């Protein structure tokens, strides 16, 4: 069932499996005087990939930054497993397992691939667990193992995206926030990254994925929200939204 | 004295001087790394450290003596006290200014410098305070070269502190987090790193190293006064720039190079020791003109 909504406090629709892992309600956020989010509500259920679609400047990245605490929640509520995280400092939110893989990957320049990965597990006190996660990440991304002693910022775009995701996995995320993982990548690499996201999800990672490329987002996700001018305009099961080209085009203006 | 002996003597003097510069330069460069502030109060923390070391020595000399052991314990006390002072200064003076334009925080640093200097002036009446120790003047003679025990211990102590710092920063997870904070604070927050705590630890270490240098300088030269931090602050800044500001290895290298340059430079004919400071700051200007990133610094790409 696809719903087009004007008021954003509507509850999640359709039957979705699992409990709500991350819920945000009527969130408003500002950059100075400019209101970037005008009451955004969305839910991410356990084990889901949820995609947040929208054009440039619609508020996608801001929504993620608001969840991870980089942008202050002016009004509204953000909850992780029923507990409010809206007023916590960004590092506290990360410690609770909300791990943000930001736009542009933000690999730490001058640090090796391995050092970047290890810092991802900064909050993991058990060094045995850190080592185990490192092995898991290397198994998932063999190229990172091969390049482990190189400066992470000198990797290619696709490898940097793998490093950024690997770094998030080191943390053992409860929810992974992925901001435009396909940006700037060649089509072949986009397919690779998408396959990896799918695999991470199948292995149990709950993901909120921001995408400008709606087709891509809808192909991966279980559930989708469309944001426009800082408001959620549409939501529904991704499979259903995918069927309805006209709606997708109208809201997202994608021809591909 | 042959030319060769004179060369060696300058080398030793240069290393001693360079050790002081390097220890102070480290604090400069670390603080610059994490909050991009040229902490002009840093030289005054060195001065405060000298007085704290003096105070510490008066406390412990009764039962530990004023020899190596007493001075070592006094130095640790001074490092602890001034380290905490550095953290308080960051919290009170700099932290509220982090969102403000760079110039505002720079002026704040100058204000902190004035506060520390004038506090010391008020407390000491501007008099030199004798930093008396029982270290004596023993040493080793190698031909015409004389190495005092004080020089040897001082250079060794500085080396130990610097190696410990280098290991901390490159090998431990917390040290890596410190480097990461200097690169991208928001990314650190997203990884769960408490950036404010890392900044506080950086101030603690940087100020502690300045205090170590201050105590050692007091014990080595035998007197301290409220204005002793001014010039060394500027010179440590020069050393940090030579090495590449923001680079820890660079600060050590820059300090030693500056010490050696001063030691040798003042023995070039027609450049007597009265030209020492002119010499130093000419080097600063040359580095800024020809290699502004210093020996080990990387050019900073300003992120939008």
Automatic annotation (TrEMBL), chain B:
Record's keyword annotation contains Transport = yes
| Membrane topology annotation | Multi-pass membrane protein
Q: What is its main location?
A: membrane
Q: Where in the cell is it found?
A: Cell inner membrane
Keywords noted in UniProt: Amino-acid transport, Cell inner membrane, Cell membrane, Membrane, Transmembrane, Transmembrane helix, Transport
Which chain regions cross the lipid bilayer?
A: 20-38, 45-65, 71-93, 105-128, 148-169, 190-212, 252-272, 278-297
Q: Which domain of life is it from?
A: Bacteria
Is RNA-binding found in the keyword set?
no
State the InterPro entries in the record: ABC_transp_permease, BCAA_transport_permease
Q: Which family does it belong to?
A: Belongs to the binding-protein-dependent transport system permease family. LivHM subfamily.
User: Which PANTHER family does the UniProt record give?
Assistant: BRANCHED-CHAIN AMINO ACID TRANSPORT SYSTEM PERMEASE PROTEIN LIVH, HIGH-AFFINITY BRANCHED-CHAIN AMINO ACID TRANSPORT SYSTEM PERMEASE PROTEIN LIVH
How is this protein named in the record?
Branched-chain amino acid ABC transporter permease
């Amino acid at each position: 069932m696809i719903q087009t909504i004007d008021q954003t406090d509507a509850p999640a629709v359709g039957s979705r499996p699992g409990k709500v892992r991350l819920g945000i309600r009527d969130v408003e956020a500002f950059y100075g005087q400019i209101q970037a989010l005008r009451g955004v509500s969305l839910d991410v259920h356990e084990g889901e990939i949820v995609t947040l679609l929208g054009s440039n400047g619609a508020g996608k990245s801001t929504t993620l930054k608001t969840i991870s605490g980089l942008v202050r929640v002016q009004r509204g509520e953000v909850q992780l497993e029923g507990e409010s995280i809206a007023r916590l400092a960004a590092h506290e939110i990360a410690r609770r397992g909300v791990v943000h893989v930001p736009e542009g990957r933000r690999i730490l320049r001058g640090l090796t691939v391995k050092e970047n990965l290890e810092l991802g597990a900064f909050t993991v006190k058990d060094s045995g667990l850190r080592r185990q996660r490192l092995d898991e990440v290397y198994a998932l991304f063999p190229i990172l193992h091969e390049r482990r002693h190189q400066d992470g910022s000198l990797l290619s775009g696709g490898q940097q995206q793998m490093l950024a995701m690997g770094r998030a996995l080191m943390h053992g995320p409860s929810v992974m926030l992925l901001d435009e993982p396909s940006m700037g990548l060649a089509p072949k690499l986009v397919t690779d990254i998408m396959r990896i996201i799918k695999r991470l999800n199948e292995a149990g990672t709950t993901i909120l994925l921001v995408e400008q490329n709606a087709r891509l987002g809808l192909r991966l996700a279980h559930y989708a929200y469309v944001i426009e001018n800082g408001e959620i305009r549409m939501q529904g099961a991704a499979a259903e939204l995918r069927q309805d080209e006209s709606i997708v085009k109208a809201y997202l203006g994608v021809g591909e | 004295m042959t030319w060769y002996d004179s060369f060696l003597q300058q080398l030793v003097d240069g290393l001693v001087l360079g050790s002081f510069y390097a220890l102070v330069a480290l604090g400069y460069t670390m603080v610059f790394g994490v909050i991009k502030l040229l902490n002009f109060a840093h030289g005054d923390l060195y001065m405060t450290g000298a007085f704290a070391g003096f105070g510490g020595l008066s406390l412990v000399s009764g039962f530990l003596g004023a020899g190596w052991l007493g001075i070592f314990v006094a130095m640790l006390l001074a490092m602890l006290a001034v380290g905490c002072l550095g953290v308080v200064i960051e919290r009170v003076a700099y932290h509220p200014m982090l969102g403000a334009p760079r110039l505002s925080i720079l002026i704040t640093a100058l204000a902190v410098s004035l506060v520390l200097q004038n506090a010391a002036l008020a407390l000491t009446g501007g008099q030199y305070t004798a930093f008396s120790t029982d270290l004596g003047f023993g040493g080793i003679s190698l031909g015409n070269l004389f190495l005092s025990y004080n020089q040897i211990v001082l250079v060794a102590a500085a080396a130990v502190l610097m190696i410990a710092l280098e290991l901390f920063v490159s090998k431990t997870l917390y040290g890596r987090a410190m480097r990461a904070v200097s690169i991208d604070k928001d990314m650190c927050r997203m990884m769960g790193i408490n950036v404010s705590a890392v900044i506080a630890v950086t101030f603690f270490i940087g100020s502690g190293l300045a205090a170590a240098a201050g105590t050692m300088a007091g014990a080595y030269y035998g007197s301290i006064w409220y204005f002793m931090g001014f010039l060394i602050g500027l010179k440590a800044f020069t050393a940090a720039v030579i090495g590449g500001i923001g680079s820890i290895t660079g600060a050590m290298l820059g300090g030693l190079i500056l010490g050696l340059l001063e030691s040798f430079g003042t023995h070039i004919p027609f450049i007597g020791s009265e030209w020492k400071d002119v010499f130093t700051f000419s080097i600063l200007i040359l580095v800024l003109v020809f290699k502004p990133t210093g020996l080990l610094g990387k050019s900073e790409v300003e992120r939008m």
